[in-house]
Amino acid sequence: MHSFAIPLRRMTAALFSGLVLAQAGTALADVSPLSIRGNQLLAGGQPASFAGNSLFWSNTGWGGEKYYNAEVVGWLKGDWKSRLVRVAMGVDDPGGYLHDPAGNKARVKAVVDAAIANNMYVIIDWHSHHAEDYRAQAVAFFEEMARTYGKNPHVIYEIYNEPLNVSWSGTLKPYAQAVVDGIRAIDPDNLIVVGTPNWSQDVDVASRDPLAGTNIAYTLHFYAGTHGQALRDKAQTALNNGVALFVTEWGSVDASGDGAVAQAQTWAWVDFMKTRGISHANWALNDKAEGASALVPGASAQGSWSAGQLTPSGALARQIISSWPGVPCASPPAPGQRCGP
Ligand code: MG
User: Where are the beta strands (DSSP E) in 7-106?
Assistant: First the structure.
């Protein structure tokens, strides 16, 4: 005989599982919905700033793809205190999404799913220097990502890594508006970050002719061995014009990706980002033999790296990320010091 009355024991179990769910809900506050107000990123409606890692190009056979897995993401969250991870999905170069869509998309999803499981933000980056040539493919890809992940506050869409020296208003803005419109027809609110001319340096140019729409930020990239005050001045102009910036990629070395760590310029950039509440991801979580790599060649593809397996760039990035304040600072704090409430 079937009874529809719920036995007391099962009710108690239901109440208990409700408590467990409530605790899980508290942990999810790590990933409040992001929005943009003026030139400031907000999380759950409050000014916020996040730091984490960019993975290397996802391209099949390039070497960085071995770090696209859940073990690495979990280690970055636990050991580096990373709040975000960036998926740099190669597009038109050999081994990229246009050549191996299944392989690259599987890597993207492995990292995005792991970031969601670890309560981290995750940037899905269309890692191209020629995205305007593949606009239809970009719209279709981001529509798919919006359908799959648009209800997750964790996901950030980065629709063009680094344009070359091409027109903002004539070429890049029309591309970006098409991709933004495609995403927004499916996902009304998740943050979209838009690449700017000259390897995502001319944020001042974009700020004079911004896109229509909400929750849009503009990409600023710097490499401290090459870029200093002149680029910070351009960034400040953009902020003064009322647009928000997101440093989806930065290095402590030369713009080539190689060279030695530029300590003083890196800390000048860190102060700039801390006092303006700018979020950022360090390039790159990879073991290629070049200055920007965070890991020494042969470092495990499953995390658990010792201090000796971090390069000078990786050790500095870990120090910066693990002590990132989470809220904008009123004035530059000492290196490694937190600020704010
Ligand atoms: Mg959404």
Answer: 34-37, 40-43, 46-47, 51-55, 84-90
Q: How confident is the model at residue 20 (pLDDT cuts 50, 70, 90)?
A: very low
In a domain, 13, yes or no: yes
Checking if the pLDDT of 26 tops 80, the result is no
* Predicted structure pTM score: 0.91
Is 249 noted as a catalytic residue in this protein? yes
Distance 74 CA to ligand 1 centre (A): 24
CA of 123 from ligand 1 middle (Å) equals 14
- The Cβ-side half-sphere exposure at 239, using a 13 Å CA radius, reads 17
Q: What is the CATH number of the domain that holds 307?
A: 3.20.20.80
- The predicted model gives 12-37 an average pLDDT of 58
Answer whether residue 175 is part of any domain. Answer: yes
143 is catalytic: no
Distance CA 137, CA 179 (A): 10
> Other C-beta atoms within 10 Å of 266: how many?
23
Residue at 51 is within a domain: yes
**Is the residue at 300 inside a domain?**
yes
Range of the domain at 157: 8-322
The CA 253 to ligand 1 mean position distance, Å, reads 35
Instruction: Quick: pLDDT tens for 181-192.
Output: 999 999 999 999
* Number of domains the chain is built from: 1
Q: How many Å lie between the centroid of ligand 1 and the Cα of residue 183? A: 10
Residues 6+ apart with CB under 8 A from 100: 59, 60
